[in-house]
Amino acid sequence: MEITSTSPEEKSRHVRLMAIDFGSRRIGLAVTDELGLTAQGLPTLHRSNKQNDFNHLRRAIKQYAVGEIVMGLPLRMSGEHGIQSEKVEDFAAELRKRFKLPVHLFDERLTSVEANRVLGETDMSGRRKTEVVDQLAAVLILQAFMEFRSSHRD
Questions:
Q1: Could you give the dihedral angle defined by the CA atoms of residues 52, 55, 61 and 63, in that order, rounded to the nearest 10 degrees?
Q2: Exposure class string for 132-141: b at 16+ Cβ within 10 A, else e
Q3: pTM, whole model, 2 decimals?
Q4: Residue 145 has pLDDT above 60, yes or no
Q5: How far apart are CA 43 and CA 135, in angstroms?
Q6: Cα–Cα distance between 101 and 18 in angstroms, integer?
Q7: Cα distance between residue 92 and residue 105, in whole Å
Q8: C-alpha distances in angstroms, 42 versus 5, 61, 133?
Q9: Which of 30, 39, 47, 137 could anchor a disulfide with 19, C-beta 3.0 to 4.6 Å?
């Protein structure tokens, strides 16, 4: 019987990532595919209360076998932290505590702008755009994080 082990790099390639675009009313979500190559949007979470939010996230983490989370960190254009970035950092700390997973904070300064630009080029209704913008922002955060990570492995 031959025993093979996988290196940490090989293990991390198969761990699915989840991106969170955190907002006060909605949370945009995206996950990587099983090979970790693409980002796929999930339905936007409409926030009701903290317990329901974490229950929803727990189910998604389990359903998609998520091993790491990346949250968009909304910095000011100057790079400074503001009130919303503090809320994101607090939420990230609670995610780490509840789910015992690595949670990375990743600069998201232009993802919502880009998501709105992309959606502005469609003939989608205003209501539908509102539903999709958070999901698209999460996809953009996840894609940017995956590109950043792969470019810094070499």
A1: -110
A2: bbbbbbbbbb
A3: 0.82
A4: yes
A5: 7
A6: 11
A7: 8
A8: 33, 12, 12
A9: 30
